[in-house]
Amino acid sequence: MLLSMTQEFARQIYEGDGKTIYFPNSSLFPDGLRIDNVMFTIPGLGLEIYWYGFLIALGMVLAIIYAYKNVRRFGLEPDRFTDTVLAGFVGAIIGARAYYVIFSLDRYLTEEGTFDLMAALRIRDGGLAIYGGVIGALLFGVLMAKIRRVRVAPLLDLAGMGFLIGQCIGRWGNFFNQEAFGSKTTLPWGMTSKTIITELLPFYGLNYTAQRATDMIAHPCFLYESLWCLVGFLALHFYKKHRKFDGELFLLYIGWYGLGRFWIEGLRTDSLYLINNDTLKLKVSQLIAGACVIFAVITLIYMYISVKKNGRSFYKDSEESIELLRIYDERLVQSKRKSGKHANDKLDEHILVSEEDSPEDSENGDIVVPDEADSSKDEGDGTVSDGEASSTESTSESCGDDDNDGSCDEPDKTDRDENVTD
User: Fold this and answer.
1) Contacts of 123 (CB under 8 A, 6+ apart)
2) Cα–Cα separations (whole angstroms), residue 127 to 59, 71, 104, 330
3) pLDDT tens readout for residues 332-370
4) d(Cα 190, Cα 187) in Å, to the nearest integer?
5) How far apart are CA 388 and CA 409, in angstroms?
6) 381 DSSP assignment
7) Is residue 81 within 8 Å of 104, Cβ to Cβ?
């Protein structure tokens, strides 16, 4: 049943409690959709938990889970990565609030013209900006990466995909708050409510009348951005196996998100303005989005040319990454053994570097598994053939076959050296 936005219907919406959203241009939810920005109240404390905060937290958690499932594929050591995530989380909150306050400064000034710091710190009253959150997370995360010596480019690749997950889910918090909607539309998914009517009329310089209210049906910009981020995430997820260089996914992220945000921001009526007068209206988010697209395109072109000329190179293939992950895995197994897990088991081949994978000479900075390498050197001849470490067991068996007494002749030093590969 298609709703008809009559004057009587518009009057009922305007005089209602403001907790029902309607879609008059379609048959979607004929009776409206009842929503409440409060998810639940903690008994005894009276503390209200909002959908907005819950969805942002959910987006962050899912982004972190995804990043941890892929952290090793990008060559990053999980413990150090955790430190950058925690720093980025703190930076995101600070940045999101600071960005909003800076570009809405008049809302935090007292009648005397002084800055109300306590009001600025009350995040529960609302006022977070996505771009501020991204900028803050990047600044704090990269700073921690420098302190913990984490390679920044692959870290940013994971961060970009995490941002898309968080933004895709977090945007639905705007739906429950009835915000981040756009200008008037006749599209089937156009939405209206008491809040939308109340805020759109002043945007068009109009006072309320039932006749004017019938036209106040808005673009669901939060939905557009959520779907845009979902498409971007899926595209990067399947593309990540084909990436050309570390940092490519992050550049694609800022280019893709910036492109979408530029046109979506043009529809919004609640934007933060850098300049807002009769001569020029310049939205902050559109300016940043446009700059991101230009920067991403130029940098990608430069890097693609560089890769075509010099070939691909990834941090995950470097000796540093391999060694850090080996050490991390050894600590993990040792920790499990101390807690009684795998106490009588041999080292799992998928956890510690196997003898077949271990390079030959620790003096060259290569990886050697301490226990097996030492025992091989003590019980066998210690030689390495064809880039693989010889095992004690195989050495013993070959010696037993060749010599009746079970002893093994010491190979010529020259022959042994010739068997060591670089």
Assistant:
1) 93, 97
2) 18, 32, 9, 45
3) 888 888 876 654 454 454 444 444 444 444 444 444 444
4) 5
5) 21
6) -
7) no
